[in-house]
């Protein structure tokens, strides 16, 4: 089975005139000679303003390397990156348009307070101190950390530290936010808070690239999904379209009471399969009414259509 796993460029263009991020055929190898290893093999991604792209793939697939190339931290062997029209590998000003919270890296000074961290980090990104303090307060307020602004970061919970790390990535008001595993190691409540923040940040117009192993998080937050395996993209699609493609189209119908032989015969003629009180029917939505006519007037208890979730889709894709 071949599925149209990539949205055509024409479709992508109608979504937004100029995407905030355009990564074009990025490549990166590590090591030399016999030990040379191609970690990323021609990956192209786009993200529009206000859009969340979930970047998924098994361990070692090349997600972090790709994110680092986009964020200007690892130089690609080939390919181009454009963030709000600027190349982070050639134009330092492009870095003003990117904020990043990288995997396992808290980026925070443990002895400093959230506000001090924000001021310091703002300084690194050429935000005037006064502006950084004002914005820092606003961010902490928005992130419900106002009462912790003067508590050393090391005394905060893991979830609060993660929120401070995200606030820091936003202090210079970037147009693109890179989040590598933002909910890793957080408890349910802290994860919920971070998810709500990601939504709010996207709603403010920021483009977000998100990697996560928590596919329920990806399904909830993302507008589109890109799946990478062995350094190559194997899908890039709107999240719901991808899930629909992998969802079975069969209907499950449950009726109360016995199905007489005549009904059983008619149902079989339509191609339905009967087991106990459960009828499975893989026909179209219009044909479904013919089946319902046959069942009339038996009480119908349930009609549902099988639906995949992002976990099913992901497992099928990476096992192909
Ligand atoms: N600095 C490095 N030196 C050598 N190999 C690396 C380096 N960074 C990553 N790799 C290798 O590149 C591949 C992709 O890694 P990575 O981008 O971290 O994947 P992911 O984030 O999807 O788990 C892995 O096989 C990893 O071992
Ligand atoms: Mg990684």
Quick summary:
With 320 residues, the protein is α/β, with parallel strands linked by helices. It contains 11 helices and 13 strands.
Write up what this structure looks like:
- By secondary structure, the chain is of the alpha/beta class.
- The protein folds into 2 domains: 9-245, Rossmann fold, CATH 3.40.50.300; 248-306, Alpha-Beta Plaits.
- Helix content is 36%, strand content 24%.
- It is built from 11 helices and 13 strands.
- The chain has helices at residues 9-15, 63-70, 114-124, 129-142, 158-170, 188-203, 215-221, 239-246, 261-270, 285-295, 310-319; strands at residues 21-30, 37-47, 52-56, 78-83, 98-101, 176-180, 207-211, 224-229, 232-238, 251-255, 273-275, 278-281, 300-305.
- The protein has a 6-stranded mixed β-sheet, sandwiched between helices. Strands 11-12-10-13 form a 4-stranded antiparallel β-sheet, covered by helices on one side.
- β6 (176-180), α6 (188-203) and β7 form a beta-alpha-beta unit.
- α3 (114-124) crosses α4, α5 packs parallel to α6 (188-203) and α9 (261-270) runs antiparallel to α10.
- It is elongated.
- The N and C termini lie close together (11 Å).
